[in-house]
Design goal:
With 390 residues, the protein is an alpha/beta fold. Helices cover 39% and strands 14% of the residues. Helix 3 runs parallel beside helix 6 and helix 8 crosses helix 12.
Length: 390
């Protein structure tokens, strides 16, 4: 893919270190490309696999790229190596032939964005979470640790070079013409770092409202469900502590997701009404079997579990840091992160008021159907592209 007939408009180049089709970011990639396909816009994608019904001819896969040989290095270094490999492949594409626009992801686009800038190709950078500084005022020069890492030589220096540096990420922010942010909180972290508001585009995720649907009726007992990686950043340690302290009658807490080492010891001391089955195939059934979704995370882009739980008609207890799906008092209760007392009070309130649960849950379903389906996602994506028409 490099030359295009003069009668056709140049395609959009989309690059991701994820796959096309599947859960999480794989689904985001698929729906982004599906929006282009539906709109009749020419496009080409670079990804590590295609698991979708989109034309293989439009997707260059890196499934057999030599970087796969580095998988034994450990996840952080391996994923960094994959991102660098994707960036090099995308940069080669952008350096050849005409492109209407380049759409990449932070941490894997710096080389491509440099070339796009020199060639006058508009660019979009997608941010899965927050600004690298997370709203804090950090120095622009290298920290002591960063200087030490930069001075590493030999094997250690080579491994360090596989990681995505703060300097690379900040350079990407500067090079991109438009930055997609997932929530009001994410936008605030960019504004705090001095990024102009006109360079930011709010772009929430979507959910399949045909797959994620409400249960015919709520369960008899009070079932709280958490869906996501069982890590402290998502507030699981606070949730376990609060649940043990509350000792609610006729209740159950279900923790759905991979158990990480930092949480495993806490589960051994958890009450008998705490169930942690790990990864489950039918997560929609877990939502439908619950009374409330609890997600007290301290940092997210826009947590997909909040979309899914809302689509299933669940009231939610979550934080502003988890995204914009939940509005306080409308379809859930918003609490501050890392505030066990506020978390306990919210759980107690919904445990005591089942009518409130039903009312908030119904409003959640209505909200996602009106604003956060994948069709809405595709429309917003095309609006972002329209902002950068050549």
């Amino acid at each position: 893919m490099g030359a295009h007939p003069l009668s056709e408009s140049p395609p959009i180049l989309y690059a991701t270190s994820a796959r096309i089709g599947g859960p999480g970011l794989d689904a985001v990639a698929l729906e982004s490309l599906r929006a282009l396909e539906t709109a009749g816009r020419p496009w080409h994608a670079l990804a590590y696999d295609n698991r979708s019904d989109l034309p293989d001819s439009k997707i260059s896969v890196l499934r057999w790229h030599p970087v796969r040989l580095l998988s034994a290095l450990g996840s952080e270094h391996y994923y960094g190596a994959k991102k660098h490999a994707l960036d090099r492949a995308a940069a080669r594409r952008v350096s050849r032939g005409p492109w209407a626009l380049f759409h990449g992801w932070t941490g894997e686009s710096v080389r491509t964005l440099r070339i796009a800038k020199t060639r006058g190709i508009p660019s979009i950078l997608e941010i899965p979470t927050w600004h690298r500084h997370k709203g804090r005022d950090l120095p622009l020069r290298l920290t002591k640790t960063e200087r030490e890492n930069a001075a590493l030589r030999g094997w250690a220096g080579w491994k360090q070079g596989l990681l995505i540096s703060r300097q690379q990420t900040l350079e990407e922010y500067g090079l991109a013409d438009l930055i997609l942010v997932l929530s009001e909180k994410s936008e605030e972290t960019f504004l705090a770092a001095g990024v102009p508001k006109e360079k930011l585009f709010r772009h929430q995720r979507g959910v399949d409202v045909e797959r994620f649907t409400p249960a015919p009726a709520p369960p008899q007992k009070f079932v709280a469900v958490f869906v996501g990686a069982l890590i402290k950043r998502k507030g699981v340690h606070h949730l376990l502590d609060v649940w043990k302290r509350l000792a609610l009658p006729d209740s159950e807490l279900r923790l759905i997701g991979a158990v990480h080492d930092e949480i495993a010891p806490l589960l051994r001391d958890a009450p008998s009404n705490v169930v942690a089955p790990g990864f489950v195939g039918d997560v929609a059934a877990e939502y439908r079997g619950a009374s409330v979704h609890v997600f007290p995370s301290e940092c997210e882009g826009s947590a997909k579990c909040t979309y899914e739980a809302a689509a299933c008609g669940l009231p939610q207890i979550t934080t502003r840091e988890a995204g914009d799906v939940v509005l306080d008092g409308v379809n859930g209760l918003i609490i501050p992160p890392n505030d066990p007392d506020a978390l306990a009070a919210a759980i107690q309130r919904l445990h005591a008021d089942r009518e409130l649960c039903v009312r908030l849950g119904a409003a959640g379903r209505e909200r996602v159907c009106a604003q956060f389906t994948w069709r809405h996602f595709g429309t917003r994506m095309l609006e972002a592209y329209a902002r950068l028409k050549r």
